[in-house]
Predict the 3D structure of the following.
Amino acid sequence: MSQAVTAPSPGATIAAGTVFPVVCAILVAARFQAKRYLGSGLLIDDWLTLPALLCTAGMGISLVVGVVYKGLGYPTPQSPDPSNRPLFISPQTVTTRKVEFSMELLQFPALTCTKLSLLFFYRRVFCSPWRAFLRLLFSAMITLCIIWGLGFYFSMAFICGTHFSAYWTSVKELRTHCPHLHTQQTWLAISDSIIDGIIFVIPIPLVFRLQMTISRKLAILVVFLFAAVTVAASITRMVIWLRAIENLKKSYALGGYDNQTVTAGLYWTMFETGLGLIVVCLPPLYVCSRAIWKSHFKNDASRFNHPNIIVQTSSSLADPMGSFVDAISSFQSQSQMVNVGDPEKGVEVPLGRTLHPVWRRQ
């Protein structure tokens, strides 16, 4: 039995389409500027935020356009002749269907790049050459996310075969040429939530295996577990979409569209995508902000004798995130004295049971 889906108002829909891209742009810019300030170099997890940002901005523009042309957030125009409902199409519904199709396609690169950015960041912070299981785990998750993104992207792009316009014409055309649309959307919502849940869980056992006090473990977990917000948004989106799909099946069976139900689904898609990009920028910004703070208020240049390598002392083992920051900020204080011809982006040097990042000048 289908359940009602509460559609957001036109104002709330426009707010989601404008606020999320703006906030995401600010955080991505801050992330790049912080890396530039530290001189630590831009890595793949940084670059992946750019396509995610572009697609998120495109989704926001689509939402706003949908509201402006009264395709989203407004009641669905109905045919005056009930017998003609399967063939009836209005300009507002055409707008709704085109916005939905564009957002469906844009969400896959946005969500995939966001997931990959977080996984590459995890691998850089936690992984070490001699921990084969962790490398296998991260490689498997990265491969899974790439396959997931590409698979669903092309599945949606050709959901109507080569009859692309069937997506935004009459219900009859949609049901004829796009029979697997709702099945695809159902599996998308479910699989997205499962993958987000796995990514959310990954750092928890890794942090608890570190040799430190419980309070410090919890402090570090707070930084990484901002991903819980994304998981919550993903689960909410899944529930909304599953309800919306049931309602849309009922509407299509009666021969009509339901623009407000579609609005609810797209609103929460925007919500999840925007929150995901915001969350993926928080851990690196936390690391960079601590490094910048230390570089301003502490002089660590005399802590290490080697001009090229930054190795954490045993006293820093209690706080690996702090050690990571200390390594960057300490190197930053010495970077003016070093000029490496062909630098590496980063290597790792074993110390005790953990491996700590080593940075060279870019």
Q: What stands out?
A: Strands lie at 347-351, 354-358. The first helix runs from residue 10 to 38.
